[in-house]
Amino acid sequence: MDAIFLQILNGLDKGAAYALIALGLTLVFGTLGIVNFAHGALFMLGAFCAVSFNKLLTLSTKVEDTTVTLFKAFKEKPYLEIWFPDAGPVLIDYAIPLSILMAIPVMILIGFVMERGLIKHFYKRPHAEQILVTFGLAIVIQEVIKAYFGANPIPQTAPDILAGSASIGSWIGLGESVVYPWWRLVYLCFSGVLIFGVFAFLQFTTYGMVVRAGMRDRETVGLLGINIERRFTIVFAIATVVAGLAGVMYTPVLPPDYHMGMDFLVLSFVVVVVGGMGSLGGAVMAGFLLGVVQSFASMTEVKAVLPGIDQIIIYLVAVVILLTMPRGLMGRAGVMDD
Amino acid sequence: MKNIPMNDVTRLLIFAAVILTMPIWLIPLGGGYPDLMQKFAIYGIFAIGFNILFGLTGYLSFGHAAFLGVGSYAAVWSFKLFTMNVIPAVLFGVLFAGLMALVIGFLSLRRSGIYFSILTLAFAQMSYNLAYSVLTPITYGETGLQLSQQDPRLIDNLFIEEVSTGLPSTTLFGMKMSGYPGFYFCAALLILCFFISMRIFRSPFGLMLKGIKSNQNRMKYTGLNTRPYMLTAFVISGMYAGLAGSLLAITDPLAGAERMQWTASGEVVLMTILGGVGTLVGPMLGAGLIKYFENIFSGFDNNVLTSAFSFLPDSVAEVVVPVVGLFVGGGWHLTLGILFMIIVIFLPGGIVEGISRLTALFRKRQQSIGGNMTPQDQPGE
Amino acid sequence: MTKDFKLDFSRRGLLKAGAASGLVAASPAFFMRNAWAEDFRNNPGNAGEVKLGFNVPQTGPYSEEGKDELRAFKLAVKHLNGEGDGGMLNTFKPSSLKGNGILGKKVTFATGDTQTKSDAARASAKRMIEKEKVLMVSGGSSSGVAVAVQSLCQEEGIIFMAGLTHSNDTTGKDKRRYGFRHFFNAYMSGRALGPVLEKEYGKERRAYHLTADYNWGWTQEESMKDTTEEIGWQTVNTVKTPVGAGDFSQYITPVLNSGADVLILNHYGKDMINSLTQAVQFGLRDKQVNGKNFEIVVPLFSRLMAQGAGEAIKGILGSTNWNWSLQDPGSQAFVKSFGAEYGIPPSMAAHTCYVQTLLYANACEMAGTFYPPEVIKSLEGFKFDGTGNGPTEYRAEDHQCFKDVLVVRGNENPTSQFDLLKVIEQTPRSQVEYDWKIFGGELGPYKV
């Protein structure tokens, strides 16, 4: 029972990451009709927003390191700690949550530039060319990050107050031994809020209504005299921000490196398609579903019966769903059928 | 190309001549060594085969590397179990890849569009993950399937008493299939494959596939069951991939699981789009370009650059070398990424489109010097 | 090319020769250039320079390690050519190196990108052999690549001096006559860690293994399991994890309530960083199980990769081939010249690549020729010292180096950003030695 409960949590946590990335991907696809292979890179850029913000906070002066005797080496002391001996370390400790403040404008800007500068020219081009250009862009973004930050993962720590584990077992009567890291719980809640926010925006605002109408029938909305293109730019920026924030919050779980976007890219495409192209609810549902299924498949008891099942489970589920449901979980007819 | 009237025989002859003279014209480009030329030919076959599916039917398979991998494994097992002769290896490679394509194609073709792409991707990723881990007894996982001296090699041992120490090499009835002979073997098959692909493009079957691409529903309304045609195209293209895989094993008897990874599938997609989807030579050009970057650009380091720019004054060279250095050696990915973007932004239709524009421009110059540009000549947006 | 046209009077050879001569007639003459003049692959002949091939990961997850290897190679070339302060050339003994290149020829090099994929690594090695005409190939950061390139080098008749490769297979079942490994292996890690684990954590322990699901992971798990069971530990469970899983939470939560009190992470690279970081996040290090502190062990520790795990590595035990904090003259000389050149201390990958290059050069000097079979013979059974791990021997039977192995602990109070690992024991060579027959495999012929 404990084990199953923990695996559900693991699955939801994993699923939250999948869902957040897939949400933006499917949003961009549904509205703009763009297959964006650079979406994983946006997730990675978000993570590196956190890294850069951390670097900014810990901008340091070089002090000669006297412990290294064989050659001249330097260690770094952050200015912030020198200038504000009390507040400085606290600020640095909260770098990750604070970097959200930086990530939002940065990601909006990136989204804006990307859409206006590149993506909008590809609205009417075949999907194959969209794939090529966004894949090329993803490689370029990756390599720039690698050239500056190196290829090794860069560890990021959650604030001290969230460092340990929460004994959720005792909250819900499962016993003391059921614990779960605070940060992962925070991540889960954060994802929930973010997903809810996006849905609320599309569902309850006039702006969102126009966008949804545009997703259904772009031409008619255009004929009504609404500048749908500008709205789509905003949509792209929203997708970018969602991916970016997912990246920021994921850094303490997964030390970011330049390649993390590619690692998530294929999975998030699977999630989007299993959910049904262009369906937001489907993407979220598929994200959580695949996350939970993956967690269960990794249990020793399951692996004893089906060795190696955890290696392929996501793809296996994807195949089964796509073969039984022609348009994924919640896909609409006519979207990306040809 | 479309501006030059040419019949298929001349096309084939020109193609064959260009391929067979590769060892000569690649030398000034720094690529005139057997291994790279073999790779050109092999990935050329792979991309041409992929184009039969993607170019003709518009179905984008994201799992073609699985067939490449299966072809390699089958070929190496043929070396291990039966004989070092390459003919059975090729046959096994093509056969097993074809069988696998039949199964995967049968299932995946029930869906279209991106649903089809993700199905093929899922099948390929499952093959890769299993080959890397659980199937290690068959695939030897991470280290890759290799020859060993203890291999049974049943047929070889019937005829030849084993005297040599060391590993045997792959042969075509006694001729070693490494180095230049290996290249010519691959090149011959490439030309054959090009010929077959050309025939398919021109055949009623090919026209049928094009019809499906432009409007599948209309084809269905005429009472035609499109599925068998699609499946045939899928299997043929899978067999091309299997052939390419077995050739990889023939020129270098080792089969690794990463040949089946999604990045490898993605690579052939990129090759085809880069060269020009649906054109005959485009995929081959794309394959050549990507393999050239991978092998030649990654080998440049600052030493090579310094000597290459030695004609510049020192002060200039000091600036130029580090800047160029970002794009070569470990940075070759960056160059490739930029190249993808430039080509697709300015040349929708790929390299072939670029070539035909150049020839068109050239012709127009001849006709009326300073003539007006038509809207199509402007950089595509 | 030579291989195709060697004299071979067996029946099969004649058949081949017949076919080959048909081809000779058919192909233009310039392919055959020097075909008869060379007596071995890429013979430098009277040229004033020799070229070595450095095949390292320049893209992909191990590219930082590759970069560091490349730094070491460049340094080694410099020292061999008599430039710089000479580094280990001054401490390495018995040395035939003169600081004037190899056999009087200036050393140059070519580089390639393995991408940590066996296909790409072989393609890149082939380019260096066929186009750049290198005499020796070295480098790499994974066992899959090492095994693949090693067998290629055997076929091509080029010596391969392996870089970082830790699987037992490299000098076990996949060993080759032309391949040599200075780095230690999974078996030796296990042997070295055993006594330290017993001393630190006692005999009554219950271990839980998480293992990367591929060849290296399995050999590492096997070695650790054997060692820990020998000192009386119980193995609660061994769980295979997919390579590149990223999030390991679903494998870590079952550890919490399994009754185990030690977690052994048979992971390397990014897998190690992620699984260790997450295991610490799940509070494993603060746990008390069976009245003992819960411990985590990482059998193969690399300083360069450990940086990525940040604070999580503090107090974690593991083994390593070499660490820059060693105080012997060889290590000091190397750290000094590496640090002076690049401003950072070398990693263990850099160390092994540097030493391998010197060893190859020295073997050529000893043999008095570049002819591979002779070079191989002078490397086989070669005993040397002054390269950082105490007296070392290249065992003739499997081409594995035997030397002291370091047991390290993640530093609780690092004094600098490089001071991540603390050497707590230098396990003597005798303790990690084993019978070469246990892993099977065959070296193959000298002459190919």
Structure write-up:
The complex is a heterotrimer of chains A (338), B (381) and C (448). Chain A contains 15 helices and 4 strands. With 338 residues, chain A is mainly alpha-helical. Chain A has a two-stranded antiparallel sheet. The longest helix of chain A has 31 residues. In chain B, the strands form 2 sheets. Chain B has a two-stranded antiparallel ribbon. A two-stranded antiparallel ribbon of chain B has the order 2-3. Chain C has 448 residues and is of the alpha/beta class. In chain C, the strands form 4 sheets. A 7-stranded mixed beta sheet of chain C has the order 7-6-8-11-12-16-17, with helices on both faces. In chain C, strands 2-1-3-4-5 form a 5-stranded parallel beta sheet, with helices on both faces. The N terminus of chain C is likely disordered. Chains in contact: A-B, A-C, B-C.
Key terms:
heterotrimer; A: 338 residues; mainly alpha; 15 helices; 4 strands; 4% strand; B: 381 residues; two-stranded antiparallel sheet; two-stranded antiparallel ribbon; 68% helix; globular
Just name the CATH architecture of the largest domain in chain C. 3-Layer(aba) Sandwich
What is the H-and-E element order of chain A? HHEEHHHHEHEHHHHHHHH
Kindly, what is the distance between the CA atoms of the first and last residues of chain A, rounded to a whole number of angstroms? 46 Å
Helix content of chain A: 55-70%
Q: What is the approximate shape of chain C?
A: globular
The share of residues in helices of chain C is 25-40%
